[in-house]
Amino acid sequence: MIKATVYVTIKQSVLDVQGTAVQGALHSMGFQEVDKVRVGKYMEMTLNTTDRSEAEKRVRAMCEKLLANTVIEDYRFELEGA
Amino acid sequence: MIKATVYVTIKQSVLDVQGTAVQGALHSMGFQEVDKVRVGKYMEMTLNTTDRSEAEKRVRAMCEKLLANTVIEDYRFELEGA
What we know:
The structure is a homodimer. Chain A has helices spanning 17-28, 52-67; strands at residues 2-10, 34-47, 73-80. Chain A is α+β, with helices and mostly antiparallel strands. Chain A has a single domain (2-80), classed as Phosphoribosylformylglycinamidine synthase subunit PurS (Mth169, Chain: A, 2-Layer Sandwich), CATH 3.30.1280.10. In chain A, strands 2-1-3 form a 3-stranded antiparallel beta sheet. β2 (34-47) of chain A pairs antiparallel with β2 (34-47) of chain B. Chains A, B: Its EC number is 6.3.5.3.
């Protein structure tokens, strides 16, 4: 079993409306020190495989095909376990 | 400037419908090795402060009040920088 952790974030060049909304909400609640917020997705998966290099290829394919919209999003992932 | 990274995840005891949907989609795309998926939120913030222990208290308060729904979600965060 390999555990994969995938992080999907909006590209720096793309306006993050959700982040801007969270920042506005935090400001209005008195958290004035919050300068910039960017919101992304975080996914944890367990994979029924023990081949790490194969898992890396497969997770990359999942990100490209489904998990991230690569036009506006970046992704990165970490693998843990055998 | 302190950089805070916040991870918000659905509690283990709560059904993660979004994760189940992603798992189903991955299976139907041929990624049969995917065993379990849990989807969470990932937030990066920059804070206009240099007091790390104060920042920790403030980020915890932000999580409790806005960023996480503590009834069904867990959160954790990391601080980086002075």
